[in-house]
Amino acid sequence: MTKLHRISDLDLSDLYQKRKQKHKAPGSIKRAVVLNNTQSRIVWPSFNMLAGVGVAASLMLLVTLVVVQQSQFNLPLKRTELTLIEVHSLDTESLSLAENVRQRHAQHYQNYLRQQQILASHHKKSAVLNLAAEGWELRTCEKELLRISSELVAALQHIDRVDSGLKNGDYVDVDFDKNGLIVGIASAKSLPHC
Fold first, then answer.
1. How far are the Cα atoms of 26, 28, 40, 50, 62 from residue 36, in angstroms, in the given order?
2. CA 127, CA 185: separation in Å to the nearest integer?
3. Cα 48 to chain centroid, rounded
4. CB atoms < 10 A from the CB of 176, how many?
5. What is the rounded CA–CA span in Å between residue 123 and residue 117?
6. Residue range 28-85, pLDDT digits in tens
7. Cβ atoms within 10 A of the Cβ of 131, count?
8. Which residue, 27, 119, 165, 169, shows the most beta carbons closer than 10 Å to its own?
9. What are the backbone angles phi and psi of residue 37, rounded to the nearest 5°?
10. Residue 127: CA atoms inside 13 Å, Cβ hemisphere, count?
11. Which string of DSSP letters, residue by residue, matches the chain?
């Protein structure tokens, strides 16, 4: 029994080689194992590199989106208004549609500027607002009493020509057109000097 326990490592190695020679694996298995081993060494490093590139690209995209979104929050919002102009006319002149629109626009704009100058220079009065059951009463510095019907107040509010939040006793500026008709009521920016 002592002989069996004293088997050296060399003896075990020889015994292993002899048994290996007896039971040889076919060549196809050897080639498959070698091929699989070499492919796994090639695929995994390239996959790791591709995964790293993908992570880096997605991180850059995320940072770019955050920066763009942050910069959009800092920009003031611009309100864009679109006006559609349709010209209906019985004119038989051969002006092009675009030229006709330009001429009419220029004419209306000149009229608007002229009316604004007239309105600013001559037709504005300061008054004190008194609310009445039939409408509004405005007492000017010249001791004039202007009574405005509820319908006119509603019409002016509909076209945003009356400041919201006006109450009894407020000082207001009354705007008149060139014919003396009331076209707007706004809070006075300064107290009237009567």
1. 16, 12, 6, 21, 38
2. 10
3. 40
4. 17
5. 10
6. 777 887 777 766 555 556 667 788 888 999 999 999 988 888 777 776 666 777 777 7
7. 13
8. 119
9. -65, -40
10. 28
11. -HHHHT--HHHHHHHHHHHHHHSPPPHHHHHHHHHHHHHHHHHHHHHHHHHHHHHHHHHHHHHHHHHHHHHHHHSPPPP-----------------HHHHHHHHHHHHHHHHHHHHHHHHHH-EEEEEEEE-SSEEEEEETTS-EEEEEHHHHHHHHHTT-B-TT--TT-EEEEEE-TTS-EEEEEE-SS----
Q: Residue 167 corresponds to which tokens in the numbers above? A: 């109450």
Specify the amino acid at residue 56: A
**Stated pTM of the model:** 0.37
Tokens at 135, concatenated: 């409408």
Q: Which two tokens stand for residue 58?
A: 């997605």
